[in-house]
Design a protein that fits this description.
The protein has helices at about 35-40, 45-50, 75-90, 100-105, 110-130, 160-175, 200-220, 245-255, 265-270, 275-285, 315-325, 350-375, 375-385, 390-395, 405-410, 425-435; strands at about 30, 35, 45, 95-100, 135-140, 180-185, 190, 225-230, 240, 260-265, 290-295, 335. By secondary structure, it is of the alpha/beta class. An eight-stranded parallel β-sheet has the order 5-4-3-12-11-10-8-6. It is globular and about 80 Å long.
């Protein structure tokens, strides 16, 4: 059964095409900096937003009624598998990502839930073999069910911690079985509402214990994929322990987990934390923690995670600049953690949304590659910091000077002159490359 019979396979037609169901910039076979565009970008479908999202928001119920929604739970789950792989084939997507709860319905007992998952994973595995589509990463939903109202790894209830551990174990088993390239921890509710009832030290220790247990189990079963943490501020918990890249890095280093994990960075989460997307990517890159990306954008006028499809070429260019400067993706990729708006009710809107996101990042990739090839920013930055390549600056960098010696040197200075940072000029150059 075809769920998207109105749509043919989406093809690259070039920037002058008037066909809205075609790519204008994403040419998967085009070679950029010695590698095919599709291999640079590694686009992935988010199973949850694409196949299970109903259009709910904090003020309204579901509006996106899909063809499979009137089926019984397990039949609905099977239909979603078929729809998902048809969708990916028509868009030329080579990867997908999932939470355990996305792919199979929960049941009265954990044992029944795992049986449901096994049955659906059989079908997913069959579709992967048929299409050649791969799993970018898996994860477990430990935030939606009411049992996780106090958190999962940070719950005050040890039974909930054990339940979360069981879900992680099972999701890791699935990810390994499907040859997933990574596994993501997204805290969701790993945080607190008030310190009046919170043992912060125990909660942080327990979260580290859960992550450690997961890495130990991965070694036991021979899972060689990359572990990620996805920083996420404010929403839904008032204060989350995975607030931003810097917070997560500090946590990982405190518990000696920094060699086991990298970052899965989302644009919308960056802005909710008060950062730019590029800031979070740069911080991860220079600390050897760059891993994968959730591609979306938020609405700066709203205070929650709106998960809109990315259409800002400026942001996409700077994101791909950081990605290329990091050496590109290895196990990671660009997962569209984005959903159509609740008023975009036609299944065609799913294709328009993905086409727009894929074209945006394809254009960003091409611009970023040209910027790097021309060393536009690198040359300027090198010139700006050249005082650290000679004299007292060189001694500072090489650790050859004491505080007393620096004070003595400063006393010899009659005047200190700073050069312009040329921000506006550089922004104009960036715009010119984009245009």
């Amino acid at each position: 059964m075809a769920f998207f019979s109105k749509v043919e396979k989406i093809k690259f037609e070039g920037k002058d095409s008037k066909n809205l169901l075609s790519f204008r910039h994403y040419n998967p076979e085009e070679v950029i900096m010695g590698k095919k565009m599709k291999d640079h970008l590694k686009f992935a479908m988010s199973y949850w937003h694409t196949l299970t999202a109903g259009g709910n928001d904090p003020f309204g119920d579901a509006t996106l009624i899909r063809e499979w929604d009137n089926l019984l739970p397990m039949e609905k789950a099977k239909a979603r598998v078929k729809a998902g792989f048809e969708f990916m084939e028509k868009l030329g997507l080579e990867y997908f990502c999932f939470h355990d709860k996305d792919i199979a319905p929960e049941a009265d007992t954990l044992e029944e839930y795992f049986k449901n998952l096994d049955e659906i994973v059989d079908l997913i595995e069959s579709e992967m073999k048929r299409t050649g589509i791969k799993l970018l990463w898996g994860t477990s939903n430990m935030f939606s069910n009411p049992r996780f109202l106090h958190g999962a790894g940070t719950s005050c209830n040890a039974d909930v911690f054990a339940w979360a551990a069981a879900q992680v174990k099972n999701a890791l088993d699935i990810t390994k079985r499907l040859d997933g390239q990574g596994y993501v921890f997204w805290g969701g509710r790993e945080g607190y509402e008030t310190l009046l009832n919170t043992d912060m030290k125990l909660e942080l220790d327990n979260l580290a214990r859960l992550l450690t247990l997961a890495t130990e189990y991965a070694d036991e079963i021979g899972f060689e994929g990359q572990f990620y943490i996805e920083p996420k501020p404010k929403e839904p918990t008032k204060h989350q322990y995975d607030f931003d890249v810097a917070t997560v890095m500090n946590f990982l280093r405190t518990y000696n987990l920094d060699k086991k994990f990298k970052m899965n960075i989302e644009a919308n989460h960056a802005t909710l934390a008060g950062h730019t997307f590029q800031h979070e990517l740069r911080l991860a890159r220079i600390n050897g923690m760059f891993g994968s990306i959730d591609a979306n954008k938020g609405d700066l006028l709203l205070g929650w995670d709106t998960d809109q499809f990315p259409t800002d070429v400026y942001d996409a260019t700077l994101a791909m600049y950081e990605t290329l400067m990091a050496g590109g993706f290895t196990t990671g990729g660009l997962n569209f953690d984005a959903k159509v708006r609740r008023a975009s009710t036609d299944t065609l809107d799913l294709f328009y949304a993905y086409i727009g996101g894929m074209d945006t990042f394809a254009k960003g990739l091409k611009v970023a590659a040209k910027l790097i090839e021309d060393k536009v920013f690198e040359n300027f930055i090198e010139k700006r910091y050249e005082s650290y390549t000679r004299g007292v600056g060189k001694d500072i960098v090489e650790g050859k000077v004491t505080l007393k010696e620096l004070a003595e040197y400063a006393l010899t200075l009659k005047d200190v002159k700073n050069d312009s940072g040329r921000q506006e000029m550089l922004e104009n150059i960036l715009n010119n490359y984009i245009y």
